[in-house]
Each structure stands twice: as structure tokens, then as C-alpha cells.
Design a protein that fits this description.
- The chain is mostly helical.
- The longest helix has 37 residues.
- A two-stranded antiparallel sheet has the order 1-2.
- It folds into two domains: 156 residues, no CATH class; 144 residues, no CATH class.
- Helix content is 70%, strand content 2%.
- The two termini are 16 Å apart.
Length: 303
């Protein structure tokens, strides 16, 4: 089996529990996902214009759009409407998220659970996961109300639209812009859904393992294997995030990797860069992914 073949099957070939995936966004956005939410009222006019021009449609020429945005009243209106729709979309995403948590609890019994931090560290697992029934109920009510209020505010704002604006075209452009800018937010929320299932399954399998009354040597071996699997899935997760990041930035003529906060990927990328074996960022990115996949392959056969 070569490394590429193994990488394609690694996520389904393990009989041991999948370990917790670490994400560079965990440190801040797991507690506050609004950090991934753009604010179109705080950026400069020139920055907003640049962003908005990138979301133009075939229904309006760039020159015509620039002419509109150069009118202060129209620019202020579009910025305000963009931020309102931005907040509405965020509330919708959160409502969908907490609806998912509720459905998962009702259908699969996955609510909230925890073990001691010492137990979690010893077995390379998370110490807590899930959401309580009361918290889910509160969040559902909160975001449902937010959606209703935000929609009403949007309706009132659109009544004040300048007559010379083609609102269908403008709203399409606004949605294009927001959809692009909320990419990381959607990715983070989807990651949480996946992690909830993995964490619940992980706790279940570890508990079943100890119920078998294993010998200490078996426990020690299991911990080593779980640690290796944890490292494997951390690297796999970094590769997935890196590939998605490359897809998002593929249309940009020039970009840097300064914002890619992935420890393993960054280490490999910097090593390749200073070795001078490649001539372009794209080539280095390809080599970085290949090296990371080799690391997964190595960990698989090491234990």
C-alpha cells in the first residue's frame, strides 16, 4: 500500500476511536464564532468598495457600479443593508446549528457528557462534549427571535432604498459578498457538528474498552495507539483545511500563507521554502500536502 492509497482510506480503516481533531480556530472561535463574522460598518469606505466590486454580476458593469458607490447616500445604504443581511445570515446559521444539536439529542441521545481532565489527557481524548437540553432550548429561542427581528429590520431598510438602485442586482451582489466572507464561519460550524459526533463516539468506545477490564500492558499499548491516531487525525484535519484555504484563494492573483495557522503544515511549508527546491508558492503547497500525507502514512505503520 502506498501513502496516497492509505490516505484515501485512513478515515474509515481504523477500528479504534477517532481522536479529537485540533483546529487553528479552536483557541478563539470555539467560544466566540462571531470573531469569524465580518463587520461591514467598521471597515473603510475604500475597503468596502473593493470587496463589493469583487462580487459584481453580469447584470451591472463595473463602471456603473463604481458610479453608484461614489454617491455617499447610496454607499451608506448599501453598507447598512449588507451588514443587516450579514447579521440575519449569521442568526440563520446559528438557528440551523442548534436545531441540529436538538435533533441529534432527540434521535441519538447525544446531549452533554464529560470525564475528568486527567482521564481525558491520559487517553488523548476531549474531557467534555455536547450541549445540555436547557442550553439548546435557550439558544433555539434566542436565534429564532433574532432571525425575526433581523428580517423585519431588513424589510424596513429596503423601503428606504434609493429609486435609482436595481435592488435585485444589488441584493444578489450583497449575498455573493456575504457568502464568500462567511465561508470560515460556515466551515467552523460544520466542524463542530462533525466533532460532536466524533467526541461522543470516542467517549463511548473508550468506556467500552475499560469495561473489558484490560491488563495494564494493554492499557499502555492502547494509549500509545490512541496518541498516534490523534496525531494522524490532526494532520488530516490540517490538510483538509489547507486544501479548502487554497480553493478559496485560487482566484486571487497573488497571496501569501501568513494567515494559515496550521502548525504541521506551516512547519513543512517553511522547511520546503528555505530548501529552495521549488520555484512557486503553488508548487510548495503541493509538496507540503504530499509531505503531510507521508507523515500520516508513517504514523500508521509506526504503531
Amino acid at each position: 500500500m502506498d501513502s496516497s492509497e492509505y490516505f484515501q482510506n485512513v478515515s474509515t480503516s481504523q477500528v479504534l476511536p477517532k481522536k479529537k481533531i485540533l483546529n487553528p480556530m479552536d483557541m478563539t472561535t470555539s467560544s466566540d464564532p462571531t470573531l469569524l463574522l465580518p463587520d461591514y460598518l467598521t471597515i473603510s469606505d475604500s475597503k468596502f468598495k473593493d470587496l463589493f466590486l469583487q462580487s459584481t454580476t453580469n447584470n451591472m458593469s463595473t463602471d456603473a457600479l463604481i458610479e453608484l458607490l461614489n454617491q455617499t447616500e447610496i454607499l451608506l445604504f448599501i453598507r447598512e443593508l449588507t451588514q443587516l443581511i450579514n447579521k440575519f445570515n449569521y442568526s440563520q446559521l446559528q438557528l440551523e446549528q442548534w436545531t441540529f444539536y436538538n435533533n441529534l439529542g432527540m434521535t441519538e441521545g447525544i446531549w452533554t457528557n464529560r470525564v475528568s481532565k486527567k482521564m481525558a489527557e491520559a487517553n488523548s481524548m476531549c474531557y467534555t462534549y455536547g450541549r445540555s437540553k436547557n442550553l439548546i432550548k435557550q439558544r433555539l429561542a434566542k436565534y429564532k427571535l433574532q432571525c425575526e427581528k433581523n428580517q423585519e429590520t431588513i424589510n424596513q431598510c429596503m423601503k428606504q432604498a434609493p429609486l435609482i438602485i436595481d435592488m435585485q442586482t444589488i441584493t444578489t451582489m450583497i449575498n455573493n459578498l456575504i457568502n464568500k466572507d462567511q465561508y470560515e464561519l460556515r466551515f467552523e460550524l460544520d466542524r463542530r457538528k462533525t466533532m460532536l459526533r466524533l467526541d461522543a463516539e470516542e467517549h463511548k468506545l473508550v468506556e467500552q474498552f475499560y469495561q473489558l477490564k484490560p491488563r495494564q500492558t494493554e492499557i499502555n499499548s492502547a494509549k500509545i495507539i490512541w496518541k498516534a491516531i490523534n496525531e494522524q487525525h490532526n494532520i488530516i484535519d490540517e490538510i483538509v483545511i489547507f486544501k479548502k484555504w487554497l480553493e478559496v484563494h485560487a482566484q486571487i492573483s497573488s497571496y501569501t500563507f501568513e494567515d494559515v495557522q496550521l502548525p504541521k503544515i506551516n512547519h513543512i511549508f517553511i522547511s520546503l521554502f528555505f530548501q529552495g527546491q521549488t520555484s512557486s508558492a503553488e508548487h510548495i503547497a503541493e509538496q507540503t500536502i504530499a509531505k503531510a500525507e507521508q507523515m500520516i502514512y508513517y504514523l500508521y505503520f509506526r504503531y
